Backbone:
């Protein structure tokens, strides 16, 4: 048995846009509900949801056998958590709040076996099908995908150095945190926020690195992809549930005679 290619990593490297969905409901069953919807990737969030490694494992299993690549966002740029997620079978990681080239380098090192990194070695784990993948140690470093998240104005200013780090496969721009840092808390779609993000994204693309983000609007997601963003999440499971529940109740109340 051989290690399969990381479909998400190879897609964004070849210029094929990838549409994603944010997964914040800490449930393998909820992940199973959306797993066959047809998204290219799904972000399993451990930073802003009460998610733990064991739950993330169940969510990854829910996406097994589908064409949707699960991307995991650990709660921090923590080599120990990263090691456990990789052993659980994560192939693509989104590192939050990367502020410098040095922090980007630390993220890459956490995903690589020595001598290129510091990942600890487990001979039998889910990532290598419990030892059945015969070329795992030869290819694991090459197939893991590292996405770093730029979330502050300081990081925007240093984005070229961050993106240029060897082993960084893409840069994700976080408009909510960038907006908060600019004084637009709760207004991630403010024009000033995107006036800062878009030129930074162009700098990253000029280096040949793909860029991505999360928005909560289908039209905006499509516009960003059409303008060169390579991986865009267009909503979240929590958003779909909350807005759907609100809309259903409103629709029923509207039809009730008073």
Residues:
């Amino acid at each position: 048995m051989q290690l399969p290619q990381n479909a998400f990593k190879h897609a964004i490297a070849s210029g094929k846009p990838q549409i994603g969905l944010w997964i914040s409901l800490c449930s393998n069953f909820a992940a199973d509900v959306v797993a066959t919807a047809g998204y290219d990737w799904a972000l399993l969030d451990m930073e802003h949801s009460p998610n733990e490694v064991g739950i993330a494992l169940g969510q990854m299993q829910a996406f097994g056998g589908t064409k949707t690549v699960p991307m995991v966002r650990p709660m921090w740029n923590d080599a120990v958590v990263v090691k456990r997620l990789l052993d659980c079978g994560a192939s693509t990681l989104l590192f939050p709040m990367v502020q410098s080239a040095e922090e980007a380098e630390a993220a890459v090192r956490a995903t690589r076996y020595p001598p290129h990194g510091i990942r600890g070695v487990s001979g039998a784990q889910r990532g290598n099908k419990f030892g059945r993948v015969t070329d795992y140690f030869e290819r694991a470093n090459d197939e893991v995908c590292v996405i770093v998240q730029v979330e502050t104005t300081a990081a925007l200013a240093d984005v070229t150095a961050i993106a240029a780090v060897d082993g960084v496969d893409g840069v994700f721009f976080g408009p909510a945190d960038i907006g908060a840092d600019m004084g637009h808390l709760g207004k991630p779609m403010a024009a000033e926020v995107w006036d800062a993000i878009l030129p930074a994204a162009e700098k990253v693309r000029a280096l040949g690195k793909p860029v991505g983000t999360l928005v909560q609007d289908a039209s905006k997601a499509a516009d960003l992809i059409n303008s060169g963003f390579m991986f865009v999440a267009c909503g979240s499971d929590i958003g779909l549930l909350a807005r759907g529940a609100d809309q259903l109740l409103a629709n029923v109340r509207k039809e009730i005679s008073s």
The radius of gyration is 19 Å. The domain at 7-255 is CATH 3.20.20.60 (TIM Barrel). The first helix runs from residue 7 to 13.
